[in-house]
Amino acid sequence: MFRLFLALNFLLLNLFACKGGYESCKLKITDSKSIKYQTLQIPVLKNKRLLFSSHLPNAKIIKYDPFLSLYLVEDRTKFEHPFKINNHLSLGVASVNNKRAIEGKIVKDQIGLNNFATFNEPLATPALLLNSCCALEGIVTPQGIIQKEYLERFLKSKSAQYGDIGIRVDDIKKSITITRVNPFIKDNPFQEGDTIVDFAGKKVKDSATLMRKILFSKVGSTHSVKIKRDSKYFTFKVKTQKRYGGGYISDTFLEQKGIYFSKNLTILKIANEFEGYGLKVGDRLMQVNGVKVSIIADIREHISDFKYFASLLFEREHFQFFVNIKGKVKSNK
């Protein structure tokens, strides 16, 4: 009760201190030049800016997160009043640019690197998601809202590396359900349809919270994961591995093998080890294990459906050819 009293008092003080509301936030965005050429260039730390950009910025780059297209760069203008991450309770949020503020609320939190947060109102991009004190709650990108927890981790971490235990999840019928399993992670014990009961001995309330715990965990660290499969319970010990795809990078599980795709399923980047397979940048993927694919999610859906190797059909200049890529585990199906 006492905590609630303190929280309410803090909110009242906050509201009084921020009486300018979102109009002042619009002015701050204009004064700081936080939106320029359809990119976000937000002053966040002393003499530094947080950039969201699909292009390499013309600035001194301190660090880069390719998954979320985030850059931390030096700020030559040295804006005196940087934006801060909101670490307190907030009565409301708005998507704000230098022209308008759209008040509303997040209706679904960001689930890892594949499902960005969604808002209850249509939003223009790019924009800043702010509370009435102009503190950052997230940023609005073409794929959705990147929430403050990810922005804060990027600002504080030394690298943009994320953890992975070989699963993708979603909230289905009030349960955290495994929707996809990485077939290229050795000894992956999970199956599609498993529901997560707890992680590291503690219950997690939703998929968004679970994926943050996994992604933010140190590569090489070991965790216990309790799952329910049909009517039985199992507890697995899993080691966090390096994440290779997600966000603004394709996430087909083939990234772990060194193959990266564009949205139209042409190869954007390929590891040197695949020279012997005859694959080239620009080859377009047509089928995965005998099933036609047209979007990234299709590859993820069908890639684990094999016993010994994944069979991929590519097309190059109207010529089609198969490539078989060996997996590390048998299919869980």
Automatic annotation (TrEMBL):
Residues 1-19 form the signal peptide. Gene3D superfamilies: 2.30.42.10. It comes from the Bacteria. Residues 18-158 form the DUF7488 domain. Keywords: Signal. Pfam families: DUF7488, PDZ_2. InterPro entries: DUF7488 (IPR055911), PDZ (IPR001478), PDZ_sf (IPR036034). Residues 163-240 form the PDZ domain. This is Protein containing PDZ/DHR/GLGF domain. It comes from Sulfurimonas gotlandica (strain DSM 19862 / JCM 16533 / GD1).
